[in-house]
Amino acid sequence: EPEVTQTPSHQVTQMGQEVILRCVPISNHLYFYWYRQILGQKVEFLVSFYNNEISEKSEIFDDQFSVERPDGSNFTLKIRSTKLEDSAMYFCASSGAGWEQFFGPGTRLTVL
Amino acid sequence: KNEVEQSPQNLTAQEGEFITINCSYSVGISALHWLQQHPGGGIVSLFMLSSGKKKHGRLIATINIQEKHSSLHITASHPRDSAVYICAGTYNTDKLIFGTGTRLQVFP
What we know:
Number of strands of chain B: 11
Number of helices of chain A: 0
Order of helices and strands of chain A: EEEEEEEEEEE
Number of strands of chain A: 11
Helix content of chain B: under 10%
Shape of chain A: globular
Strand content of chain B: over 45%
Oligomer: heterodimer
Order of helices and strands of chain B: EEEEEEEEEEE
Largest sheet of chain A: 7 strands, mixed
Structural class of chain A: mainly beta
Distance between the termini of chain B: 41 Å
Helix content of chain A: under 10%
Distance between the termini of chain A: 37 Å
Radius of gyration of chain B: 13 Å
Radius of gyration of chain A: 13 Å
């Protein structure tokens, strides 16, 4: 069964460093999403991406964040200068035409 | 403001019990989603519904459009059902707006 994959599973970084979180969506899906979940809190939407551009972004998704689909299979989230409050689980999701979203296993980002 | 609220926050049950988790949402929803989050953190979509009722194995999801309310039922609960169950809504866009989740523990 096709699945969304994410790498790495856990990333530890120093405050101020750049990180890139990687996702491989399900191959025939067209809609891609990033969500995050701070420990103990609910999952929050960050950004959606369709047709090689951002279709919607939340207030959280400020200038330190960017997304890219560099090669037709990977979907990346870059955080330019990490802050302590960026520590969270980051989930990638993808969907086809039916709006049901399929989630990856998540990347746990720890900013020290 | 688009919102999704769940109850209860925590739920414990004995194996075999019938379980109900409730979700209420603000007006304008396009679809209501039920998801399961495993202890390791992974999220799995269980149901997406905009009307009526759906069933998959021991799981049943219902939605009442007039009351803006949805329920997730688990029949004959089992310890492996222990997880966080989350309802989420899509409104006029495809982003999911998540509830806070219900932590379910089923004891043998």
